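User: I've been trying to design a sequence by hand for this structure and keep getting stuck. Would you show me what you'd pick, starting by listing the structure so we're on the same page?

Assistant: Good idea, let's start from the same input. This is the structure you sent:
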């Protein structure tokens, strides 16, 4: 059974991995992006694998960096292969599975000054209906923020001031948590800021923007601005923080890219689904989950209908 501790644990681990990643940036610098990316990916992965093994022995783990295909990756000064994920057969029969992306927005992490990268920690639990996400946290270390689910079914925003104790992990007597409830804000009428990948914005989103802007379309003509941001977690956080109004993606992604941000988004009252409106499903044998729509519920019907109108342009 999930209890409040799982929400707190997700936030604690995402925040701690995030601080570790800030230290990796300080230690390695930005001269060699490949070394910085690989070291960040692997150190955050090893931290999360060890912490989950210690704190939740018996739970399964699916991490981007624990796949057999990344067995050859090495951190700076690292001399062993990454800790492997729970075997697929065991994961598919487990009651609880942590789905983690130790460093989402790896490219942005390696670019000096960029703040759009994240750590994702989500918990999936089996239920009578195929299972569901029950807890999640997205740390945005360079922004000093963690977005997390809470035990009431809602979500919260935790502000971590640089140089001060992390309110998520701080013990008794330390600064009080600066934590506020998180509710997805509604967009301004007639306008829609849509977050897209910085490096591979899907062409169909441009067509969607044109379709929504048409006066004769069901949307009645909306002024759409495409906003390039790195990291799925940072983009979904931007929706929840009111910096943009939607995130639309298709053409490729994996469960770890969206599990934690989707859990927080649903807790914050957002719409989160596949681009055809189907529910997002996690802990599948094949972890590919190639498309996603996150927005305020008031925009969902318009966006889904607009996506349907340009579905011929959707990537395979
Ligand atoms: N077409 C695609 N195929 C596979 N993964 C993709 C993808 N587009 C985006 N992603 C993944 O989704 C995350 C966000 O991407 P983007 O910043 O371009 O929006 C990145 O995760 P990682 O940084 O963890 O690799 C990226 O690898
Ligand atoms: Mg990712």
């Amino acid at each position: 059974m999930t209890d409040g501790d799982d929400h707190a644990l997700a936030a604690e681990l995402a925040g701690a991995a995030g601080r570790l990643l800030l230290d990796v940036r300080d230690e390695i610098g930005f001269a060699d992006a490949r070394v910085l990316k690989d070291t960040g990916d692997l150190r955050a992965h090893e931290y999360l694998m060890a912490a989950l093994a210690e704190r939740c022995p018996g739970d399964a783990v699916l991490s981007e960096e624990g796949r057999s295909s990344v067995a050859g990756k090495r951190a700076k000064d690292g001399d062993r292969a990454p800790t492997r994920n729970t075997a697929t057969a065991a994961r598919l029969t487990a009651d609880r599975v942590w789905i983690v992306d130790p460093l989402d927005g790896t490219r942005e992490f390696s670019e000096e000054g960029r703040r759009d990268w994240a750590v994702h920690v989500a918990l999936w639990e089996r239920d009578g209906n195929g299972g569901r996400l029950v807890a999640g946290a997205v740390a945005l270390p360079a922004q000093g923020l963690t977005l997390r689910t809470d035990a009431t079914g809602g979500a919260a925003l935790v502000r971590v001031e640089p140089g001060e104790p992390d309110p998520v992990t701080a013990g008794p007597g330390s600064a009080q948590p600066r934590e506020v409830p998180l509710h997805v804000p509604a967009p301004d009428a007639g306008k829609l800021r849509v977050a897209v990948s910085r490096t591979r914005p899907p062409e169909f989103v441009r067509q969607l923007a044109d379709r929504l802007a048409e006066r004769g379309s069901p949307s009645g003509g909306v002024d759409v601005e495409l906003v390039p941001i790195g990291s799925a977690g940072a983009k979904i956080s931007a929706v929840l923080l009111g910096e943009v109004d939607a995130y639309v993606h298709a053409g490729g992604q994996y469960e770890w890219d969206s599990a934690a941000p989707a859990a927080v988004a649903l807790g914050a009252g957002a719409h989160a689904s596949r681009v055809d409106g189907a529910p997002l499903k996690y802990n599948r044998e094949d972890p590919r989950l190639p498309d996603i729509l996150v927005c305020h519920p008031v925009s969902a019907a318009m966006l889904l209908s607009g996506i349907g109108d340009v579905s011929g342009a959707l990537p395979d």
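That's my pick for every position. To get oriented when you compare it with your attempt: The first strand starts at residue 60 and ends at 63. The chain has a mean pLDDT of 93.
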